[in-house]
Design a protein that fits this description.
Layout lengths: L8 H17 L12 E4 L2 E4 L2 E5 L12 H14 L14 H14 L3 E5 L2 H12 L5 E5 L4 H10 L2 E5 L4 H10 L7 E6 L11 H10 L3 E5 L14 H5 L7 E5 L9 E5 L7 H4 L1 H4 L6 H15 L2 H20 L11 E6 L2 H13 L2 E2 L1 E3 L9 E6 L6 H20 L1
Parallel strand pairs: 3-12, 5-6, 5-7, 7-8, 8-9
Antiparallel strand pairs: 1-2, 2-3, 4-10, 9-10, 11-14, 13-14
Helix pairs in contact: 2-11, 3-11, 4-5, 12-14, 13-14
The protein binds pyridoxal-5'-phosphate (PLP).
């Protein structure tokens, strides 16, 4: 606990937050500030002097260590420098940014793609550019923070429907005074905390019925779902009914950045309105070059997808067989509900002591206020990594059962 202080107002509020967090941690190591001392490859890092298998990044395809992506980044840096040092509407609109946009649009089979400097910024820019005060936005309760922040920024009337519950979405339309054509529906295709798939077919049907604009965030699905890796919308055959797909370059693509694709000419205007596009520096040359190479590999990437799915299924089966209940079907993200912070922390720490890193998620990062152990799988994991993770889960669950 912090020593009592005479602070008032904003400082007092922040001190009290620090104090509550310190009490919760009670001298424990902070799972939110774990230090990666060194990164060895896409799935191995050094933490506290120990080589640790990483099951808590979003490098689903291992492309952050792909030799061709690294080479492209080095060459771009040598040729064009380390940063663009300006926004897209000033001196930061370089030929490779346009090439990346054209390649993303072609990959999705859409007419237009806009690249942002982060996935967070893509949601922020797209949603706040499309919706205004006189409009409504209906959002799934489990959507990412960037979507909720975007809704707030738009000034529109925001309503939240129960997670994946299209009856609740229908209720919002029925009760809304705003016409369907002035309503934006925003969902994700693979929810990042629990790893469950959005009910896109049902959402599409409701949005279509009301002629609402539908935005789907495919951040965790790019390169993993669908015949050509375009995501869950492709997997479920509903791509043509989605007005805007938003995605990120920071997960399966292995760099940083975000994008939005559309076929609807009127929706392209978010380039003119999105403040997170207009007022921030564009992506550095290395990032653009690596992203272009990664998207090429994803487009040609059956073997990467197969490796990811082989690993994800094996890990899901192994962990489930221990009697641990996973929220969702096998996929790149696995998630286990913990019976509170202290139990979750004990599990997380014991896994780390056995050389396995996973994420410990606590509110407000979890949508329902629970504590969750979240793990992710990569195409870069080897069979022995998956076996080591399952063995550690077995060991820790037995140890905590008998504790
Ligand atoms: C669903 C979703 N959308 C957007 C983002 C933000 O992406 P980025 O971290 O690339 O800014 C995330 C990040 O975790 C996410 O899970």
């Amino acid at each position: 606990m912090l020593a009592p202080s005479a602070a008032t107002g904003i400082l007092a509020r922040l001190e009290s937050l620090e104090d509550s967090f310190a009490r919760l941690m009670n001298g424990k190591e902070n799972p939110l500030c774990i230090v990666i001392d060194d990164t060895l490859d896409a799935v191995r890092a050094v933490i506290k002097g120990r080589t640790t298998l990483m099951f808590g990044t979003n490098s689903y395809l291992g492309l952050n260590f792909d030799p061709d992506c690294i080479r492209a980044a080095i060459e771009a840096t040598q040729h064009s420098g380390t940063g663009s040092t300006a926004s897209r509407v000033a001196a930061g609109n370089h030929r490779p940014h346009l090439a990346l946009e054209a390649e993303i649009a072609a990959f999705y089979g859409r007419t237009d793609a806009t690249v942002f400097s982060s996935g967070f910024g893509a949601n922020l820019g797209v949603i706040s550019a499309l919706a205004r005060k006189e409009d409504a936005v209906f959002v799934d309760a489990h959507c990412h923070a960037s979507i909720f922040d975007a809704c707030r920024l738009s000034g529109a009337q925001v309503s939240v429907f129960r997670h994946n519950d299209c009856d609740d979405l229908r209720r919002l339309f029925a009760q809304s005074a705003v016409p369907g054509t002035q309503t934006l529906v925003v969902v994700e295709s693979l929810y990042s905390v629990h790893g469950d798939m959005g009910d896109l077919k049902a959402v599409v049907a409701v949005a279509k019925q009301h002629r609402a604009v539908l935005v789907v965030d495919e951040a965790h699905a790019l390169g993993i779902y669908g015949r050509t890796g375009r995501g869950v919308a492709e997997h479920l055959g509903v791509e043509d009914d989605i007005d805007v797909i938003v995605g990120t370059l920071s997960k399966s693509v292995g760099v940083i950045g975000g994008y939005a694709v559309t076929n609807t000419p009127a929706l392209r205007s978010f380039r003119l309105l999105a403040r997170s596009y207009l007022y921030t520096a564009s992506l550095p040359p290395a990032v653009v070059a690596a992203a272009r190479q990664a998207i090429k590999l994803i487009a040609a990437g059956d073997s990467l997808r197969e490796a990811l799915w082989r690993n994800a299924r094996a890990l899901h089966a192994g962990v489930s067989a221990l009697g641990l209940h996973l929220y969702a079907a096998p996929g790149p993200v696995g998630s286990i509900r913990m019976p509170g912070f202290h139990a979750g922390f004990a599990f997380w720490k014991a896994l780390l002591e056995r050389g396995i890193y996973v994420n410990l998620l606590i509110p407000p990062a979890t949508p329902t206020g629970e504590v969750v152990l979240r793990f992710s799988t990569s195409a870069a994991h080897k069979p022995e990594h998956i076996e080591a993770a399952i063995a550690a889960f077995r060991d820790v669950s037995r140890m905590l059962e008998t504790a």
